[in-house]
Design brief:
The chain is an alpha+beta fold. The protein has a domain of 180 residues: 2-enoyl-CoA Hydratase, Chain A, domain 1 (Alpha-Beta Complex). 25% of the residues lie in helices and 29% in strands. It is built from eleven helices and 22 strands. Strands 1, 2, 3, 15, 16, 17, 20 and 21 form an eight-stranded antiparallel β-sheet that branches. Strands 12-13-14-18-19-22 form a six-stranded mixed β-sheet, with helices on both faces. Helix 8 packs parallel to helix 9. The longest helix is centred in the N-terminal third of the chain and has 14 residues. The radius of gyration is 21 Å and the shape is globular.
Amino acid sequence: MSDTENRPVGGAKSKKLFKIVGLTIIGVVIFVLGMGVGNGRVTFGSPAANSQNKNLPEDLDYAAVEEVYDLLKTNYDGKLDVNKLMDGLKSGLAKATGDPYTQYFNAKDAQAFDEELNGSFTGIGAQLGQDDNGSIQIVSPIEGFPASKAGLRPKDVIVSINGESTNDLTIDEAVSKIRGPKGTQVTLRILRDKSQDLSFTITRDDIRIPSVTWEVVDGNIGYIQVSQFGEDTVSLMYDAANQLKKDGAKSIVLDLRGNPGGLLTGAVDMASMWLPKDKTILQEKRGGVIVDTFTSTASGDPVFKGMPTVVLINAGSASASEIVAGALRDNNVATVMGEKSYGKGSVQELRDLPNGSEIKVTVARWYRPNGENIDKKGISPDKEVKMTDEDYKQDKDPQKDAAIQQLEK
């Protein structure tokens, strides 16, 4: 079985996602959801998967659907497309769950979603989510790309896109309106902190990012920045570890700020670089019942064993990044600094459907080693360090500075 997919009976692809849904403005939904890929530990069709819906009928009654179709076919003043009608039905079923992370992707959107998970897409370079009121908001602008350069911030609420209100838009619909060819522009009206009414006109570009970058700072501190948990993340983390140790690093700053999540296997393997074998990283529960426990996988001493570590988080840190931060904190191998994280404590699976389409379904809730589910609560840092408007304007980073100072003690 590969790191990234499990193929159950019938050949359907199954991926566990720990990324924030629809996270990308940059593409279609990256959601990010956090992707926990592979492993197939929660699968459709198991008793655990169906227990909460056991009273539903075996099949839906499609007579009413046929009635609506017949009325449209006979009376609609315009040309109907049967493929779009079918996509609408499937999308409607997913949307009817009321869960923003359960989504249907047609073939085009599925391709864009998969490309984003590999760190390559066209757009403005930001992740999208929804706040508690259902408003479309920025989860995280990716450093160095158009959204970040324009000045977008985590938790900025998108009021309109090119003058069109975002009221009642799904994340997917917002993403599709923000996307566009390289070199074209999109104008976003933003509500910041419930008080500032701002407008940003942003030029779209190709977004290609390695998920891990690193350097040595202040002589012997290894600084590792992880932008998402993609298919290259774990191998790049080991490259970083090897190079940083050669360069004399004695301690680590793990920067997960603005990281919306990604593959579950990436989160588990990354946490395992600090933890000895069989330490709890997270548990999955369905209907309050534990359906799986993920533990550290190190076969020998973890690569960062004994190295003092600070993990940086902020409001843009979600899903898989919250898993890593929580696992390292609860197992007492790292200090968490920065600001409270996003708060996404659910698990999605991605499954192939005919003709290149896919469906992403919330299948469980995940819990930290200390037993907490962080959904809509986030992880509070051990030491809070805020970024002010002035810090952003002057390109200062007091959070990174505080982490370095902590490790210099």
